[in-house]
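Invent a record, attention on tokens:
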Amino acid sequence: MIALLPGESRALFPRLVDEMYDLRLSAVRARRDRPLGAVNRLSVVDYFDSLDPLYVLALDDAERIVGALRLLPTTGVTMLNDAFAATAPQRLRIESPLVWEASRLTLAAIENCQAQERIIDRAIGEIGAALNEIAQAAALTHVIGVFDGNAQSMLFRRGCAGESLSPPMSLDGMQMFIALYEVGATMDAQFMHLAGDDACRPVNLAEFESARFYRR
């Protein structure tokens, strides 16, 4: 199941928000590329989360988050346009009402057995298919992905890493990858084969009548 959580509605869904941030935290710790003591909740909740982005959340059958993505319009402040200023002054910059940025793609670190890997396949597929549907509804032409190495590797192995727009860039000691997706049938096909035939349409939590089901 895919749930859409507008940033301005986060206070209504504390469990989902906590799970999303905990998923980010677990992913950062799993990389082991920095001292464990430096990895905490503050290190995974950044300035861009304060801009009320749209979160795309993949939920398993127990209604627990197994994947998450953050969306922001490129006409405002974004990671690509504003986060790399110090390390990549000649960086690519994209500002268009027809393009949104997808960032903070995070997936449950359970790729350790064949049975559980299917959960990740479906999460990636449903998030990507939902992203394409959202983009079409907003009359967008493209989505820019800003992904860390772990997310990019997961997408690449499944044939849905998008078109690379630049060499990897450094941010906070991590390599970040910039990918371009063209909205439409091609993007949908890249992800739907992972989502499966029983993939559901995204549920907008801000409009969901049974919203209290997701609260603590």
Summary: The chain has one domain: 2-214.
